[in-house]
């Protein structure tokens, strides 16, 4: 049992390190390959690897109910988040983005409670509001008095990915941990082939080696293997225990931005990152109560049904 916990913690830590390198890798790759290749092309590359693994393992197809949840995961983790962060990294420093993405665990917890039919406590809302205000003030301060488009993209990315994570966490209990992101990748990839193909150019062949390494890292590690380590860690070490490692992510991102991109970090950035992480810790660990009204979120799945049918 102790060995499983240690393995789970190690896998979870590896997963967090991998996720923390996503923004720096995106920042390096975007100038040479463009937003479409970096944002969507990574999924196409990952889908080839996933397809080979599924053929070897002879994975069974998900049922209709599971497909509804997989669409939600795919829209968030495979489409919206890569595109929005790619767009944001064209104009924002990684250390800036790290503070905004620090709200992701709080957003995930909120959506998870909502999907579980639980009522969010006052403490959760207070922590969420303080964290959000801190992020917005920091964004406006760095934007010289106004919110930049990249900031809006990252905030939307946090909300969409939070829902995707919550849905994926719920689905992983019946479908399997890494299979959730794997199926989501296969669902999304076919829609990306044409735009990715139209965005390819011979100029990309002149991209430096660090740009190619960054693109392959995003496709193979950030989009797939990092999820394998993360979900595998939570299954062995426990969701609550391993999930605490998410608090390290903003600081790791900031550290990697200094190490690989040469960004300068101010004390204000560190202090605000600490404030946001404290808000996340308080908000994630608040008592919740079941809603009095019966509501099982069928509306969300009905919307997905309409999307699939159309």
Automatic annotation (TrEMBL):
GO CC, alphabetical: membrane
Keyword Membrane: yes
Bilayer topology: Multi-pass membrane protein
SUPFAM superfamilies: Multidrug resistance efflux transporter EmrE (SSF103481)
Keywords per UniProt: Membrane, Transmembrane, Transmembrane helix
Matches recorded under InterPro entries: AA-Vitamin_Transporters, EamA_dom, EmrE-like
Domain EamA: 7-138, 149-281
Signal peptide: none
Intracellular or extracellular location(s): Endomembrane system
Pfam family, one: EamA
Transmembrane region(s): 39-57, 69-88, 124-144, 150-168, 180-200, 212-230, 251-283
PANTHER family named among the record's database cross-references: EAMA DOMAIN-CONTAINING PROTEIN (PTHR32322:SF2), INNER MEMBRANE TRANSPORTER (PTHR32322)
Family recorded in the similarity comment: Belongs to the EamA transporter family.
Name by which UniProt lists this protein: Multidrug transporter
